[in-house]
Each structure stands twice: as structure tokens, then as C-alpha cells.
Amino acid sequence: MFFILLLPLTILLTKLSRIFPDFIETYYSSFFYKIIASILSEITGFIPFSLAELIIIHFCVFSLFHVLKIFILIYKFENRRSEILKNFGFNVLATSGIIYFSFQMLWGFNYQRLSLDKLLKLDIRVSSSTEVVELCNTLIKSSNSLRKNLKENKDGLMELPYNNSYILKTAYLGYDETSLKYPKLGGNYGPPKTIFFSLPMSYTGITGFYFPFTSEANISTAEFDSSLPFTTEHEMAHQRGFAKEDEANYIAYVTCINHPDVYFKYSGTLSALTYSLNELQKIDNEKFEELLFSCTSGVLNDLNYKKRIWKGYSGAIESIGNAVNDSYLKSQNQNSGTKSYGEMVDLLLAEQRKKQS
Q1: Are residues 19 and 99 in the same domain?
Q2: DSSP label at residue 179
Q3: For the chain, give me the number of helices (H) and strands (E)?
Q4: One pLDDT digit (tens) per residue for the chain, 357 residues
């Protein structure tokens, strides 16, 4: 009965936490969470594979087996059907209570922390189309410049000169450098992990995930080269307690451009450009088309390749994955759902205004 009560108790605590973001920031995100996550990730970091992936697979198999077992019991003992269903219902509620309580304590309350614009003193407000155009121009110039001497494959696409494990092992350097300016991004955490079933996961539209129960940042290595460094830094932002997607995207951009490796710099800049161009296309398609002509052929190749790849992965599984992710984000007080990834543009524009002032 106690475990069943965990579910309504955690829901109540979550609603209360939304009223006190300063308290969550000071005592949970900046203290309790940092201690728990750093210790847990250091322990799981010694395991060379994704423990999270293993747990998820086993949990799915166990759940399926348990459901099938219940159906068999109902069929076999018809006279005890109500008792079996009642016990099953109690077990589901108890398990849900334990999982949800653990999730919130180990990471979930970070959704209620102070917003990143307040922590970094950025002025977010409604922006003009002129500001968006200016941002796109700046990012295009940076992308063109960074792309010049990068390695290409036979199709004219950016190609990493080293293997994926090198990206995962060196991604922390971007955080080390950025934390000198923003201490909130500092700390010692376990390394990001490769997802073994990366290719199948691509069909869900997901390129990585953070698993609070093991404090692991998990990365799909089926991700194309130009995006892999950015995706890695994004999941590491979640690992450091920044739960909101737009904020994790912005942190990924900042840590990429501060990374000593030019391939990280380009990946972060290209990703920021992608989101910014998407925003410009919504408000001024004519200007969007005009700006594309100012991109070099290499940058255009990389941008178009992203679109082609994701179009190839689209389908029923991707739609279901997107719907699940959208519902999850909305349940965590991110009202824009999956659209919140693109809201990093608001932070980029605020940063632009801060530099100009």
C-alpha cells in the first residue's frame, strides 16, 4: 500500500516544486542532484557499455512476460479472474509509484529549476524578423568559415577524421572550457555511452537519451557525423541537470563552440544554424531562400543531408516515438512538447542582444 501511495505523493510534490523554482535550484539542482548524479555516473562510468540500454530491454521483456502470464492465469482460473486482475492492478500502481518517485528524486525535479535565461542573465523576449535574419547571417558566416578545411567524403559531406568513441571521450573538454564562464556547467561525471541498437532507434526519431536511474548520457552512433558532437553535448547537458530541451540544445551549442576541436565547433554552429533557419522559414520564407545562397556548397550539402536522412527514417514508428516524446515533455511542464527543441533560438537571440549591448 505504501508504494501505491508514492504515486499521488510524487505528483503532489511535483506540482508544489513548480511554485518554488528558487528552492529547487538552490537545494535540489545545485546541491542534492549534483552529488547524487556525479557519484552514480562515476560508478556506472566504469561499465564499458550502456547499462541503461540493458535495463530498458530487460524491463520491456519482463513487462511483456508478466502481462502474458496474467492473460494465461485469467484463462486458466476463470473463477479467480477478479482477484488476479486486482493483484495485477495493485502491482502496476506500486511499480509506477516506485519508478516515478525515483525518477523525480534522481532527475525529474530539474524541470522545475530556474530557467537558463535567468541563470545566464539572458533577456528573452519577442524578437523581430530582422533579429532572426541577423542571427542566421552570423551563423552562416561562422559555418562557412569553419567548414573550409574539414574532411569530406566522396559525396561532399563533412566526415569526422576519427571514430565515434573519440567524440564521446573528448566531449567533456567543451564543458571544462565553458564552465570557466558558467560554473553551473562544471562537475565530474561519467562519460557518455554508445547505444548498441543505434540504427533501430533512429526509426523512432531519437538520437540519444539521458537515463536518470544510472546517470548515463546515451548516444546513438547512427547519427550523421556533422551532428554527433552536438548530440553528445546535448545529452551531457541533461546529465548536468538541465532537463529542458531548448536549454540542453543551447548548452550543447555553447560547449561545442568552446571546444578546442574544430569539428565540435562546426557541429554546434551548424545545428544552431539549422534551428535558426527553420525559425526564419516560418516568418519569412523569401528571406530564408535568399540566405541559403550565402551558404557554401559544403554547408548546404550537410544541411540537405540531414533532411534527407530524417525523411528516410520517417514512418509509423517515428510518428509513435515523436508522439510519446511529445506527451512526455508536456507532462513535464514543457508546453511546446517536441517543438521546445527549436526554442533554443530564443536563447541564441538573447545571447546576440547581450553581445551587442
Answers
A1: yes
A2: T
A3: 17, 3
A4: 678 889 999 999 999 999 999 999 999 999 999 999 999 999 999 999 999 999 999 999 999 998 898 888 888 887 888 888 888 888 889 999 999 999 999 999 999 999 999 999 998 888 888 999 999 999 999 999 999 989 999 999 999 999 999 999 999 999 999 999 999 999 999 999 999 888 887 777 788 999 999 999 999 988 789 999 999 999 999 999 999 999 999 999 999 999 999 999 999 999 999 999 999 998 899 999 999 999 999 999 999 887 776 565 555 544 554 555 555 555 565 554 444 345 899 999 999 998 887
The answer on 225 and 142 residing in a single domain is yes
CB atoms within 10 A of CB 355: 8
Other Cβ atoms closer than 10 A to 7: 18
Angle at 212 between CA 88 and CA 30, to 5 degrees: 130
* Pair (295, 197) in one structural domain: yes
Report the run of H or E that residue 35 belongs to, with start and end: helix 33-44
In this structure, the answer to whether residues 171 and 98 fall within a common structural domain is no
| pTM given for the model | 0.91
> In angstroms, rounded to a whole number, what is the distance separating the alpha carbons of residues 188 and 110?
18
Q: Which of 84, 112, 140 is the last residue of a domain?
A: 112
Domain boundaries, position 101: 2-112
How far is residue 41's CA from residue 212's CA, in Å, rounded to a whole number?
9
Do both 196 and 138 map to the same domain?
A: yes
Question: Could you give the strand order of the β-sheet that contains 193-194, starting from the edge strand earlier in sequence?
Answer: 193-194, 216-219, 208-211
Among residues 112, 129, 151, which one ends one of the domains? 112
Query: Domain tally for the chain?
Result: 2
Q: Which amino acid is at 336?
A: S
> Where is 220: in which H helix or E strand?
none
